[in-house]
């Protein structure tokens, strides 16, 4: 089992920044990649950023490219999502998700609210 614990959400004005953290514990050897998903009201959950746990390769959804940066501290078993130039449409619950071949493990989520 892998446990994921997010933090760092909150209320921010449009144009502002937030940094989300995800502490990973348990069977970390089970992880190939870690994603940040978000759940926007009325829409399906979507992956906005991904990082491979060992190699550190990254990928981003089109809606956040150039604004969000995913990273991880391999020694501290922590992943981050730096979110800059936030927009009201970024409002939602952000989840840290990890697994080997699928999205096996989910955190409880952290709320991000961007006011206009």
The termini sit apart by 40 Å
User: How does the major sheet shape up?
Assistant: 7 strands, mixed
Number of strands: 11
- Summarize model confidence as the mean pLDDT: 96
The helix content, as a percent range, equals: under 10%
**Poorly predicted spans:** none
Instruction: State the helix count.
Output: 0
Q: What does the radius of gyration come to?
A: 13 Å
- How much strand content do the residues show? over 45%
Architecture overview:
The chain has 116 residues and is mainly beta. It is 0% helix and 55% strand. It contains no helices and eleven strands. Strands 2, 4, 5, 6, 9, 10 and 11 form a seven-stranded mixed sheet that branches. Strands 1-3-8-7 form a four-stranded antiparallel sheet, with no helix packed on it.
């Amino acid at each position: 089992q892998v446990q994921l614990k997010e933090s760092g959400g909150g209320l921010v004005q449009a144009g502002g920044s937030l940094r989300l953290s995800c502490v990973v514990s348990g069977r970390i050897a089970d992880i190939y990649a870690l994603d940040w998903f978000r759940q926007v009201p009325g829409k399906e959950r979507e992956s906005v950023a991904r990082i491979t746990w060992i190699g550190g390769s990254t990928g981003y959804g089109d809606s956040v490219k150039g604004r969000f940066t995913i990273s991880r501290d391999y020694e501290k078993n922590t992943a981050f999502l730096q979110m800059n130039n936030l927009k009201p449409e970024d409002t939602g619950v952000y989840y840290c998700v990890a697994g080997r071949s699928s999205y096996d493990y989910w955190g409880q989520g952290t709320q991000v609210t961007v006011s206009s």
